[in-house]
Amino acid sequence: MKRLGISILAALMVLSVAIPAWALESQFGGYWRTRFYTNQNFTGEDQTEALDFVGVDTRTRLYYTAIFHENLKFVNKFEFNTTWGDGNGGDIGADGMGHIRVKNSYADFNTGPVNWKVGIQGAALHRGLLFDDDFSGIRVAYMGDTFSIPFIWIHANEGFSSNAASKDSNDYDVDYYGIHPTFNIGDMLSITPAAYYVYSKNAGAWDATLEEMKMFYLGLDADADFGAGSAWFTFLYQGGDADLVGGANSIDYSGYLVALGGNFDLGMFGIHGQGFYATGDDDPTDNDVETFFVPAGQSYYWAEIMGLGIFDRNKSRNAPGDKISNVWAGNLGATVKPMDKLKVTLDLWYAALAEDTTTLTGEKDDSLGTEVDLVVTYQLVQNLNLDVVGAYLFAGDATTLDSNDDANPYEVGARLSLSF
């Protein structure tokens, strides 16, 4: 893997100098962070120490874009991750590169008013409440003066790679198809209705209990900008069905998610808030799946402990993390900027399961708890920021499971980051 990464970088450098200067403009960029942090009691108890962590990790991203002309770009993004001392670049010698990744490699070109992105790329759909990840596929967008109409195809699973010995390997392919036009109404409002279809002739590579899967999502985003403030709204409905293994029975999907939020800027001070609700299943024994979920690709970060946040190694017990499903949550926060280089943000979150879970005592409970997050951001030098984070969860019974060793989760850490 290390040789592969070196070869790719070397090839790109050769490309940047081999093509005549008049034919190519090269752009380089990147992102770097190092995090020092601890997670404690994320299981809701202080005996097993199962999710306790104290450590340091580093992430480096390098970007290279070859611009041939205004209608053609070749985009590449690479990522290196290591936890200090882990043997993948963080140990003595620092030459293990087991976590090197090619995140993006795609052509970005225009044919008249139509923009094409073909290859391995990233996309965020509905703020990540539906999808926010890298994928292999195609995005085609017609660009108008006050609107855009994008179509997206995500090839989520290649059946041949999972079932090479099977003559029916292509049946195990999984594909997402979607259209999500955006209409701008003046300078204040934009609306994005959307429809997506997820299909696999045999979804067994993802879920061993399923065969043919036909799933769809209907969505709507609305964004309003009032100058001193802004507001947003998202709604997603999930429907469709899937055959269970053996073909005797099938399941029907019928979940939904609703979210809204906003902020108001008062100069030195600002307030913000948001809330969301994603359905759960009130009867897991029947064939109606009412839990809102996305098979793969959903990623929406929110609270530091329950929603992954800045230190995203672990989430507290029974919290959804960035996979928003079977949960409701509300947030109110404030930001203070006493000087240009300093920002202080305080957030209060409450979250609960949409459908109850069973505690160790046999009782039903839905409360995940109340979380307090404090983030202090300071610009050490130009382009280099320091974030100092403290978070504490007053855990509900759905987090602790009401055990005899109840303990509230907490997190403390710092992050150095830069981008260029």
Q: Nutshell version of this structure?
A:
By secondary structure, this protein is mainly β. The chain has helices at 2-18, 159-162, 397-400, and strands spanning 25-40, 53-69, 72-83, 100-111, 114-125, 131-143, 147-157, 174-179, 182-185, 189-200, 210-225, 229-244, 250-266, 269-278, 288-289, 327-339, 342-358, 364-381, 384-395, 410-419.
Output the keywords.
420 residues; globular
Distance between the termini: 26 Å
Strand content: over 45%
Output mean pLDDT: 90
Assign a percent range to the helix content: under 10%
Individual helix count: 3
Using the CA coordinates, give the radius of gyration.
23 Å
Class per helix and strand makeup = mainly beta
Biggest beta sheet attributes = 20 strands, mixed
Return the string of H and E elements: HEEEEEEEHEEEEEEEEEEEEHE
* Form type: globular
Q: Regions with pLDDT < 50 over 5+ consecutive residues? A: none
The total strand number stands at 20
Summarize the structure in words:
There is one protein chain. The chain has helices spanning 2-18, 159-162, 397-400; strands spanning 25-40, 53-69, 72-83, 100-111, 114-125, 131-143, 147-157, 174-179, 182-185, 189-200, 210-225, 229-244, 250-266, 269-278, 288-289, 327-339, 342-358, 364-381, 384-395, 410-419. By secondary structure, the protein is mostly beta strands. The protein has a 20-stranded mixed beta sheet that branches. Strand 13 and strand 14 form a beta hairpin. The mean pLDDT is 90.
